[in-house]
Design brief:
8-stranded mixed β-sheet; 28% helix; FAD/NAD(P)-binding domain; disulfide bond; FAD-dependent oxidoreductase; Rieske Iron-sulfur Protein; globular; 11 helices; 27% strand; alpha+beta; 2Fe-2S; 9-stranded mixed β-sheet; metal ion binding
Length: 557
Amino acid sequence: MCILTCVFFSEIIVSALTVLILKILTMETQSFWEATTPHRPEFPALDGNIDVDVAIIGGGITGITTALQLTNAGKKVAVLEARRVGGGTTGWSTGNLYVPVGFYLHNIARSRNQEVASTVARARYAALDYIEQQTREKNIDCHFSRRPWYFFTQEDNMVSTVEKEVETLQKAGLRADLVNDVPPLHLPELKRAAKMDGQARFHPLRYVLGLATAVAQQGCQIYEHTTVLDLKEKEDHCLLVTSHGVVTCRQVVIATHIPIGIHSVQTVAAPYRSYVVAMRLKSGAYPDAYFWHNDKTHHAITTHSSTSMELDMLMIAGNHHKTGQASHQEYQHYFNELEAYARKHFDVASVEFRWSAQHYRSGDGVPYIGLTHKSAKRTYIATGFYADGLTYGTIAGIQLADMITGRGNSWIGAFDATRGTNLATAGSFIKENLNVAAQYLKDFPVGKASHFSDIKAGEGKTIEVDAEKLAVYRDEQNQLHVCSAVCTHMKCIVNFNNAEKTWDCPCHGSRFMLDGSVIEGPAILNLERKQVDPQTEHLINTGGHTSGEREINNPIT
């Protein structure tokens, strides 16, 4: 009887540990927003050829906001989303809406001028009002709520940064104050702090899905699982070749976070990833504010609600780094560091979710919104949002619609996508492009192996077989997943991201799943899949692309 009882409880313990391990593994690849959106509308894939006024590539906050504005203006619009609406960076953000920016407005005043910094600040303020208005008018259940933003430091050498940011906001005509305390946190050894009221939080995925549902009811055509493979701007129209048909239109908006295909803006918008850890608190006392801790790693602290307006989740974000340029140990360290920070400052009960998101940073800290280049007449882009994209994406949607309809907009000059690099940003431009060049010169990224047998279960590494560079992952069932390691965008060698189980390009930020499928651009084509004999673990020569590869003759330029 005792033996049976022990066996019974042993099985319970093993089962519990298995569930815990699975939870830890899955929370690294699922955002809080995805997990708390159980019912989402589904939109069909394109089926055949269509003709519209404006085609929008990308169904995130930028694309859907643009679609809403254009539909309201009487345009016939189609949104083409490669995966699911809101499934990109929008659904993997931190759900905060605020006027200040991660690059700092005073740095924008230095890299451009105070007028541009003021325009950026006022545009972001208007975007917050716009989101609140849409939420109310369309009755979107996205937990929108106003609250203050705090910016503080406990280090003497960071005091001037806080003071300069307040000064720049005040010059823009906005209310921001230096304060002596951060009441929700009551931090020891506070050196300087600032406060700005009227900022906000919301559920970004529910918001975008609510907008998408509303604009679809107004006649906008939204297509999911529809990948754009080629784009050509003609004299009087544009042609988009997709995975399910051809779209003819008068204008195109590329709202894919970074333009897909090969584009000159990719030399001035560098890809970065940042990390988020979401957790429950023992006390249940969640501070109702958004905080920037101006320390060495620039932690952001926020709180959100799962199913109602009541706060029940703490989030810590930070640890920006160039996409594809971290070691295997560093990927896990970024999450662990955020958790350690949270446990130091809060009574953490449990870690519920971990995720990361992609951002693109411009040299002068201001996004590129507008015509794709000086000779373009019909194609528009929006990129370079860095980690402030929910607000910038809304700005982009409003501005791009105004440009297409010919309506005046005072923001256009500040965000001009055709602007060049000035002396103040030349250093950043050179640094980022030297970094890209260095990635091409590397033989292999971190994690090189010499044979398939060198790769353990759960590991991903690059390997060279018969002069061919391969990206190889061995799963927990000991099965190999092999693709070409050469990024299909501009031939850089991908690096394995062991925290998210993806292949990330260190040059321009393209990311791929283990089977080689594109997660996010600028790459259009999947990594070429390779077949391996499961018995001998030798490559099987298939004589070219394997089934499921997308091939096009003319990539987007």
